[in-house]
Specification:
single chain; 211 residues; alpha+beta; Jelly Rolls; seven-stranded antiparallel β-sheet; four-stranded antiparallel β-sheet; binds 2-oxoglutaric acid; binds manganese (II) ion
């Protein structure tokens, strides 16, 4: 049985790394600028914050979300919450981002969460699985903007061989199908490699179906 994502999938990635499809240059420079304008509005109403791990250590990546749910982490663990930790609902996911999800995946089901990660100089994200969602038959779509990020992909099980690629501004990766639960992370960014963010840094958006 094909899952809904495999059945709907219409596009062919420019490269595949351990089952993760990468669509290099999916967004052209003007589309990247448009995304930045929309994201500035989102961050204006739902400011970035630094979630902490269950051990109380702040993540080096700053985050916020749009959609029905936002991803959150603190001493009680990783989870999705219905509003910003400082109060109020998360803003809506901007329509061009929903359109990107639809044109890339072909899925009618919309994502419930657009997690916005901001990597300043020195920020990184350790190897992990995206597994706080209820149904792993839906893909996770990841959009890169700004500085280059060294993206590492491993295996479904912990450990073993990994491979890395530099994700550049405008690249979109799809973590889905048989690769939905692969370990992945960002070892480092090439701070200042892109002019998209005036003061440098990398933004990554991940679109997720949560429940
Ligand atoms: O920044 C990236 O490219 C990956 C982000 C990620 O894996 C996550 O937010 O779960
Ligand atoms: Mn992830």
């Amino acid at each position: 049985m094909m899952n809904p994502f495999q059945a709907a999938r219409a596009n062919t990635p420019t490269l595949t790394i351990r089952g993760v499809g990468v669509f290099q240059g999916w967004l052209d420079p003007s589309e990247q600028e448009e995304m930045m304008l929309l994201l500035r509005q989102v961050v204006g109403s739902a400011p970035l914050f630094s979630p902490s791990t269950r051990f109380g250590k702040a993540l080096s990546v700053q985050m916020t979300s749009a959609g029905r749910y936002g991803w959150f982490s603190d001493r009680h663990g990783y989870r999705y919450i219905a509003g910003h930790p400082a109060g109020g609902r998360w803003p809506e996911i901007p329509q061009p981002i929903l359109d990107l999800w639809h044109s890339l995946t072909g899925l009618e089901r919309r994502p419930d969460c657009c997690l916005i990660n901001f990597y300043g100089e020195g920020a990184r994200m350790g190897l992990h699985q995206d597994r706080d969602e209820a149904d792993f038959s839906w893909p996770v779509v990841s959009i890169s903007l700004g500085d280059d990020g060294l993206f590492r992909v491993g295996n479904i099980e912990k450990g073993g061989k990994t491979e890395s690629i530099w994700l550049k501004s405008g690249d979109v990766a799809v973590i889905g199908g048989a690769a939905r639960l692969v370990h992945h992370g960002v070892d480092r960014i090439r701070f200042g490699s892109s002019k998209l963010l005036k003061d440098g840094g990398r933004i990554n958006l991940t679109l997720r179906v949560v429940d």
